[in-house]
Write a structure and sequence with these properties.
Elements (H helix, E strand, L loop, with lengths): L1 E9 L2 E7 L4 E6 L5 H11 L15 E11 L3 H8 L5 E2 L4 E11 L4 E5 L2 E3 L1 H11 E4 L10 H42 L1 H21 L5 H13 L1 H15 L9 H15 L7 H30 L4 H19 L3 H19 L1 H47 L6 E13 L2 E10 L7 E2 L6 H15 L7 E5 L7 H14 L4 E5 L3 H4 L4 E10 L2 E9 L1 H13 L5 H17 L4
Parallel strand pairs: 3-14, 3-15, 9-13, 13-14
Antiparallel strand pairs: 1-2, 1-4, 4-6, 5-6, 6-7, 7-8, 10-11, 11-12, 15-16
Length: 571
C-alpha cells in the first residue's frame, strides 16, 4: 500500500505531497490542473519509460518519491534486499519502503530503492507486485493469456486449486522421466564407453586386490631388506657393547654390575646410596633385556627368505601402477573401485531402465490426460460463472449490452498448468464478435471493464493497490454512482486510487484530494490538497454544477455524500 506520494516538477505540478493510505482515494481538480500527472508519477515510480518532456518547464529534473507499507518478510522486501536496499520495520510484521525516481530534462534518470541506487527495472519488478494501473493508455494487468488463466484459476476456488496441484505433481514427474529417457538414449554411446572403461578398471584393481595401507607397509619392508647387512652389523655391535660373548671383552652389563656391587658394600653406612644402587640393579636388568632383543632382531634378519625383496618390489610396482591410473594414492584407488561397481551396474542396466521408464511415462501420460480433462471441465464451469458475474457488473456500469466472454480452449500439448488456453474477450453489444479486451472497448469503457473484472476477482486474486484513470469517461448519473459504489467495494480489500471528474464517483471516497492550479504569470503551477468538511463539500458542488459556492450545488453535494455513505455497503 502507498502511504504517501511526493511529486516535484512533473508537468504542471511544482511540488505536491499526496497523503494516500488505505481505502478509496479520489483525485479531482479542474481541467488542466494536472490530475493525470498523479497517474504519470505513479507510473514513473514503478518503472515506466520516462519522457523528458514531462519535466516542468524551467526545471532541471522531475522527482517522485513514494512511501509504502509492505510485509517485512514478503517477496517485495526480499527483492529490495537483493537489490542492496532495505526496509524499515514498523509494527505487526510490516515495514516502510521508500522508493524514488528522478528524470532530468536531458532524459537521464535515477532510481533509489530502499536507500540504495538501483536499475529502473527493479522499480518495474516491484510495481508488478504492488500496483495495477487501469487507464486509456496503460498496460492491462490481464493482457496476457498466462495472467488470464491464473486469474480464472484463482476465481475457480479450492476445488480447481486441488485439481491443478494434482495435475502439476504428475506433470513434473512425467517431465522428469521423459528427460531421463532422453538422456539415456542420447548419451547411450558415451555411457557404453564409460561402462567398458569401468569394467576394465575393476578387473585390473580386482586382480591386484590392494589393501589399505599396504603400500606404506611394503615400503618399510623394502627399506629393511635393502639395508639388511647394515642393520645386522649395527645390531651385533650394539649387542657386543652391552653384553659381549667374548671372554676378554668388558661389556656394559659387567661394568654396571661392578658399580652396583661397589655401592652395595657400603650402602649400610649411608642410606642415601640405596636408591642409586637400586637404579643400577634396574639398569642391569634393562641392559640384559635389550641384549636379548638385539640378539632376537639379528636372528630375524637371518630368517628372511631369498628373493623376498624381489617379490616385495614387484608388488609395490603393481600398486604404483594402479595409483598412477586411478589414484593418486592407493586409498583413492580403493575408493574408486568401491564407487565404480555400483556405477557399472547402473550403466549395464540402461536398457532395462529405459524400458521401465517408458512404461512409467505411458502410465503418467494417461493420468495427465484424465487430470487435464478434469481441469478443463472445472475451468469451463468457472469461466461461465466469471463471465456472468462480470457481465452483470458491466450492465450496472453503463454497458448494458456488453458481455465478457471467457474462452477455455484445450490444446494438443500439455503444459505446467494443463493444456488449456484461456482468453478474456469482450463483446461490446449484441450481434458483435467477441474481441480481446484492449481491442473491444474504448479507453473509458476499458477502464470500466477492468473495474468490473477486478471487483469480481477481488477476493480470489487480490492486488495491493489499484489505480483507475478515466474509469468514469462517458458516463454520469446513476451509472456514475454504480461506478463509485464498486470502487468502494474494491477498496474494502485493496487500496484504490481514482482520478475522476464526477462527483458521483468522488462521493464514495474515504480520502479526497484536489489538484489545484495557480497561474503565476506565464507559468501554471499545481499542488495537491486534502479535502475535508466544507472544503470537500465545495469541491463536490463544483464537480456537480461548476460553482463551488452555489447553495443548490452545496445542497446537492451534501445529499450525494449522504447517499454514497448509505450505498457504500456490500452489493
Amino acid at each position: 500500500m502507498i502511504e504517501e506520494l511526493s511529486i516535484t516538477d512533473l508537468g504542471v505540478i511544482g511540488e505536491a505531497v499526496l497523503p494516500l493510505g488505505p481505502g478509496f482515494t479520489a483525485v479531482t481538480g479542474e481541467t488542466g490542473a494536472g490530475k493525470t500527472m498523479v497517474v504519470s508519477a505513479l507510473g514513473l515510480l514503478f518503472g515506466e519509460r520516462a519522457d523528458p518532456g514531462a519535466v516542468r518547464s524551467g526545471a532541471a529534473q522531475a522527482w517522485i518519491e513514494g512511501r509504502l507499507d509492505v510485509d517485512s518478510d514478503g517477496a517485495v522486501a526480499e527483492r529490495v534486499r537483493e537489490a542492496g536496499g532495505d526496509v524499515e520495520p514498523t509494527a505487526g510484521g510490516r515495514a516502510e519502503l521508500i522508493l524514488s525516481r528522478s528524470v532530468s530534462a536531458e532524459g537521464r534518470g535515477r532510481a533509489v530503492v530502499g536507500g540504495r541506487t538501483a536499475p529502473i527495472g527493479v522499480l518495474s519488478e516491484l510495481g508488478d507486485a504492488l500496483v495495477v494501473v487501469h487507464g486509456q493508455s496503460d498496460q492491462l494487468r490481464l493482457k496476457g493469456a498466462t495472467a488470464q488463466r491464473t486469474a480464472l484459476d484463482s476465481f475457480g476456488g479450492a476445488e480447481l486449486a486441488t485439481a491443478k496441484a494434482a495435475y502439476r505433481a504428475v506433470y513434473d514427474s512425467w517431465q522428469a522421466h521423459r528427460a531421463e529417457i532422453e538422456v539415456l538414449i542420447s548419451e547411450r554411446s558415451a555411457r557404453l564407453r564409460e561402462a567398458e572403461q569401468l569394467r576394465v578398471a575393476i578387473e585390473e584393481i580386482t586382480a591386484v586386490a590392494p589393501l589399505a595401507g599396504e603400500d606404506v607397509e611394503l615400503g618399510e619392508l623394502a627399506d629393511r631388506l635393502t639395508n639388511v647387512e647394515d642393520l645386522r652389523v649395527a645390531a651385533a655391535e650394539a649387542r657386543d657393547a652391552i653384553s659381549s660373548d667374548s671372554g676378554d671383552a668388558i661389556d656394559t652389563v659387567v661394568l654396571v654390575d661392578s658399580a652396583r656391587r661397589s655401592l652395595e658394600r657400603v650402602v649400610h653406612h649411608d642410606p642415601a646410596l640405596a636408591p642409586i644402587a637400586a637404579s643400577l640393579t634396574e639398569a642391569s636388568f634393562l641392559l640384559s633385556d635389550v641384549s636379548t632383543q638385539l640378539a632376537s632382531y639379528a636372528a630375524s634378519l637371518e630368517s628372511d627368505e631369498p628373493g623376498e625383496l624381489d617379490r616385495i618390489q614387484e608388488r609395490r610396482a603393481q600398486l604404483t601402477a594402479l595409483a598412477r591410473k586411478y589414484g593418486p594414492e592407493l586409498v583413492d584407488v580403493i575408493a574408486f573401485a568401491a564407487e565404480a561397481e555400483p556405477r557399472l551396474l547402473e550403466l549395464d542396466s540402461d536398457s532395462d531402465r529405459i524400458e521401465e521408464l517408458t512404461a512409467v511415462v505411458d502410465d503418467e501420460a494417461a493420468q495427465l490426460e484424465r487430470l487435464a480433462g478434469e481441469l478443463t471441465g472445472l475451468r469451463t464451469t468457472a469461466s461461465s460463472r466469471l463471465a456472468d458475474q462480470v457481465t452483470a457488473e458491466l450492465a450496472a456500469l453503463a454497458m448494458p449490452n456488453a458481455r465478457l466472454v471467457v474462452e477455455v480452449t484445450p490444446r494438443e500439448e500439455y503444459g505446467a498448468s494443463g493444456r488449456d488456453q484461456v482468453q478474456f474477450l469482450l463483446r461490446p453489444h449484441e450481434g458483435s464478435e467477441p474481441r480481446p479486451l484492449n481491442r473491444g472497448a474504448s479507453g473509458g469503457e476499458l477502464s470500466r471493464v477492468m473495474l468490473a473484472i477486478e471487483v469480481v476477482l477481488a477476493e480470489a486474486d487480490p492486488v495491493p493497490t489499484f489505480v483507475f484513470d478515466e474509469v468514469d469517461s462517458g458516463v454520469g448519473g446513476a451509472s456514475a454512482i454504480e461506478i463509485g459504489r464498486r470502487l468502494a467495494a474494491l477498496a474494502r480489500t485493496s487500496q484504490v486510487i481514482v482520478v475522476t471528474h464526477l462527483a458521483q464517483v468522488a462521493a464514495f471516497a474515504t480520502n479526497h484530494l484536489r489538484v489545484e492550479k495557480d497561474q503565476d504569470g506565464p507559468v501554471t503551477a499545481s499542488n495537491v490538497v486534502k479535502l475535508e468538511g466544507d472544503e470537500r463539500l465545495a469541491e463536490m458542488a463544483r464537480l456537480l454544477s461548476g460553482l463551488p459556492d452555489s447553495e443548490s450545488g452545496l445542497a446537492h453535494a451534501a445529499e450525494l455524500l449522504d447517499t454514497a455513505t448509505s450505498l457504500a455497503v456490500p452489493h
